[in-house]
Every structure is written in C-alpha cells, then in structure tokens.
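Practice set, problem 2.
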Amino acid sequence: MKTRLCFLLAALFLLAMPAFAQNAAELRSRMAQRLPGIDDLKARGAIGEDNRGFLAVRDEQNASAPAVVFSENADRTAVYTLIAKETGSTPDAVGKARAKQIAAASRAGVWVQDEGGAWKKK
C-alpha cells in the first residue's frame, strides 16, 4: 500500500513537471518583455522597488506605470511562490530576500525602499 502511494505520488509529480516548467518559461518570457519598460520607468522615477520584492508606483502622473506594476507584481508573486515551494520557504521571505538583491543591483538614481519602509534614491 505504501509503495503504491509513493509510486502514485511520484507519477503525479512527473506528470506535473512539464506544466511547472512551461509556467516558469512563460513567466520568464513575460518578465523579460517588460524589463525595458520597467527600466525606463525606474530611470524616470515613476516606479521603484519596495522592500518586499515588488514594484511600487512613485509618480501617479505616469499613465503606464500602474499597468506595468500590476502585471510585473503578479508574475513576481508567481515566481516567489514557485521558489518558496522548491525551497521550503514562504513567498514573503523569498520576496524580501529578492528585494535586497534587487536594491543592491539597482542603478544609481533608482528609488528603493529600505527595510524600515523609507524610500530613497540609490
């Protein structure tokens, strides 16, 4: 009985792997397509990187910023969830760790939020 259950779980996992890989590839593709627009919005100060690993609108005057932020954050949520499942962590912890990496790698002049919630230009 236990062997059958293990075999069944392994088979289900193997069947689900292509869906996870395809989903990850689709996420990467969408995020890569948005990146030039995100970089432009960051350079203009319209958006910034918050301390949870997500984009935030900094300038409400920019009409395209909210749509880009919404789409990117939806995909980041999915990525953080996938990573959390793989590592045994939580999406929140993954996002916060990613926020530190993003802030460290950001160009000068980009808005980033520190751990305490204060916004500053890098």
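Problem 2, part (b): a different protein.
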Amino acid sequence: MFKHILVPTDGSSLSLGCVARAASFAKETGAQITLFYAQPEAPSAYAGLGAVSDTHITQDIQSRLDQAAQDILDAAEQRVQEAGATCQRVAQVGDKPYADIITAAEANGCDLIFMASHGRSGVGALLLGSETQKVLAHSRIPVLVYR
C-alpha cells in the first residue's frame, strides 16, 4: 500500500476537501502526508523599456506571497489534524505548478500524489488547462484524482 502521500493544495474549497479525504485515507492506511503548495513567482515590474526597481515593492509582494502560502498550508494542515493525522508541509516557488508537484513528490519520496480536479470540460478545460491533467500526463508516480 502507499506509505507517503503528496497532497497539493491551492486553498480552494475543493482542494481543502481533497486534503480532508487524503488525511482520512492516510490515517486508515498508516501513510505519511506531505502537503504541498506551488507558490507563484513574484511578478517583475516594468515601465516602458526599462525595469522599475523598487526594493520595497518587490519585498512587499514577496512577503505577501510568502504569507499567502503559509495561510493556505495552515488551512490544509488544520484539515489534516481534524482527521486525526499529521503532516509535513512544503511550499515551492515556480512558474509550472504541475512540474513543481512532480518534483516535490520525487524529492520527498512520495509514492502517491493525491490531488483534486475542478472537473472542467470542453472549451474551459482547453483554454484554462489543468494542472491535474498535466501531472497525470507527466508523473511516473501514481496519481489519485479526487472530485
């Protein structure tokens, strides 16, 4: 059976529901949980042809992104604890969440990725893409999709 589960979260209600279900599954099977948040990179500010460089703005944006990551992981960890399980937490900054999820699963020795899918279909899925779909397509680690 699975021993170490990576559970990506984005803070959405669907994602938090997935965290709760993954925690319940982990408790039943004795698996370890690693919560994961793919933190977006801070945007660069540009004006005209040259870059606008204000260290205070850059630091403020980065600070807000870091705090948002902690808030999202705090909410997810609370769901894990409510299910009677424990977890570790990882946030990674990057511009390709699906790749960051796979990298985190491999780096933490996870043998299952347990993630939510918003279930978009048709043009919405085509235009918006799906991180879950990309993880499914590229991961060598099994992926359990929760809806």
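Answer key, part (b): The helical segments are 13-29, 55-82, 97-107, 122-128, 131-138. The domain at 4-146 is CATH 3.40.50.620 (Rossmann fold).
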